[in-house]
Amino acid sequence: MDKIIKKISINKSNVSIYFLHSKDRLSISFEAYSSMYLYVGKSLSSKEINQLKKTTELTKLINYSLSLLKKGHISEYRLREKLYNKEASKSDVDFIIKKLKGTDLINDEMYALDYIEYSNDKHIGKNKIIHELSNKGIFMDKIKSIKFPYEVELEKAKYQLARLDKKYDIYPYEKKKAHIYSSLLSLGFDNDIALSMISKIEYKTSSKSLEKLHRDYIVLYRRYSSKLDNPRDINDKIYKSLRSKGYSYKDIKREMENNNAYENDF
């Protein structure tokens, strides 16, 4: 049954339509209002009313999409996911995606390339880049088409090696290498590059590592000397504990000699 418009009220955020002989009020978007010639006395069919509602709902979904894009890039996959969570139909989602792609508001390829450039400047490895792009909803077919030159990955890893070498300078040589290797993998570098990098680490004991060795020795000496009476047993326990922490025999021996605790056959 057709409804006759009794009143049209243009509000701040929408347009309200009132009908004769009815308490119903139809709230529509400005886009819906401008899509159809509406005036007081006009008769609206059920089909026309549904069309106004449809246009209004579509406008809400478009505005919602734009609000997400204002916060930063959102991939096509993530936007589809969020629109479906709003119970949007597939045809509406396809329409919105096509509309936004047409204005480059959604451009996964451009975003991926921009993110890679940013990540390369931060010296992040390809595996972490791929993982992050996948998490952001970039389709895998686009990710697979991206090239990661080995030479570029190698240069980024060299930069990270220099940084990590300083970061883990306090650790004994073996522990230091293990930490750097693990860090390079977590930064997204391939295993062969990580192994290549740690093979470049020179064997040396830093002053920071020796200071830590001394502190660890004092702690262990206090612990075992309070439990054991035999000096040889104390030294044996200390030695095994320090070795498990990654310190070399040579450095442990020197520390024990400095503390008059070394025995050739401990």
- How do the strands of the widest beta sheet line up side by side? 3-2-1-4
Sheet of most strands = 4 strands, antiparallel
CATH-defined topology of the largest domain? Arc Repressor Mutant, subunit A
Number of domains: 3
Superfamily at the CATH H level of the largest domain?
Winged helix-like DNA-binding domain superfamily/Winged helix DNA-binding domain
Alpha carbon gap, first and last residue: 102 Å
Question: How many strands in all?
Answer: 4
- Pattern of helices and strands: EEEHEHHHHHHHHHHHH
Shape: elongated
Cα-atom Rg, whole angstroms? 34 Å
Query: In which range does the helix fraction lie?
Result: 55-70%
Q: Quote the average pLDDT.
A: 89
Total helical elements: 13
Oligomeric state of the chains present here? single chain
Describe what you observe in this structure.
Helices cover 62% and strands 7% of the residues. It has 266 residues and is α+β, with helices and mostly antiparallel strands. It folds into 3 domains: 3-102, Arc Repressor Mutant, subunit A (Orthogonal Bundle); 150-198, Arc Repressor Mutant, subunit A (Orthogonal Bundle); 208-258, Arc Repressor Mutant, subunit A (Orthogonal Bundle). Strand 2 and strand 3 form a beta hairpin. Helix 3 packs antiparallel against helix 4 (90-102) and helix 8 (150-167) packs across helix 10 (191-198). The longest helix is centred in the first third of the chain and has 25 residues, at 46-70. The radius of gyration is 34 Å and the shape is elongated. The protein starts with a strand and ends in an 8-residue tail after the last helix. The mean pLDDT is 89.
